[in-house]
Amino acid sequence: MMPSHLLFRASGLITATLALSLLAGCLDSAPPYDDAKAAWRDFDGAKAYEHVTTIVAMGPRPPGSETLEKSRVLIEEHLRSHGWQVRRQTFTGKTPNGPVEFSNLRARFAASDSDALWKSPVKVLMCSHYDTKWYRDLTFVGANDPGSSLAALLETARALGQHPDLAKHIELVFFDGEEAFGPNITTSDGLYGSRQYGREVLRPLKP
């Protein structure tokens, strides 16, 4: 059997290859495809695996927790270091555990931040959530869910940063509150961040 870290690298590379190839095909003004210069070639599975290791080491990261805020700052710093502008979409949601403050992270590739940047349309959304499920009596660190998709998106952000003409057409979204507080996602519990994003996506956000 393939070691877990190699399996992750392989699966991450496959995911990035499919996503980045699809992105190039979605752009009306895209130049002829050149496989030798394809963005997916800059995706490094080892770097993605390092993200998982770092994030999981923080421990459980349920909505509203200090550890989730630490991971949120880590995500923001990583994105900004590779040319992405980041804004928080913060809101309070009603949950079975009472009111909880959530923060989605939106990222766009640009030299500077402005309201105009966030009002302009993009051609592609790439998303993951970054919270872990809350359990009263269980230490759940989310190595795969959301660790794997979060790490893949962070490494994709780095790879895309080397392809500005492609990256400028994309918005990256990191959702908070994807997990339900109860056993399962329902119409009133779970998907807090993505529902809020859908309601507010056309509104300008504060830095």
Helices and strands, in order, run as HHHEEHEHHEH
Number of domains: 1
Can you say what the CATH homologous superfamily is? Zn peptidases
What's the rounded overall pLDDT mean? Answer: 88
Task: Supply the number of helical segments.
Answer: 7
Largest sheet: 4 strands, mixed
Strand content: 15-25%
Structural class: alpha+beta
> Rough shape?
globular
CATH topology: Aminopeptidase
Q: What's the Cα radius of gyration?
A: 17 Å
Across the major sheet, the strand order is: 1-2-4-3
Residue stretches low in confidence (pLDDT < 50, at least 5 long) are 5-14
General description of the model:
- This protein is α+β, with helices and mostly antiparallel strands and 207 residues long.
- It has a single domain (4-200), classed as 3-Layer(aba) Sandwich (Aminopeptidase).
- Helix content is 40%, strand content 17%.
- A 4-stranded mixed sheet has the order 1-2-4-3, with helices on both faces.
- Helix 1 packs across helix 2, helix 1 crosses helix 5 and helix 2 packs across helix 5.
- It starts with a helix and ends in a 7-residue tail after the last helix.
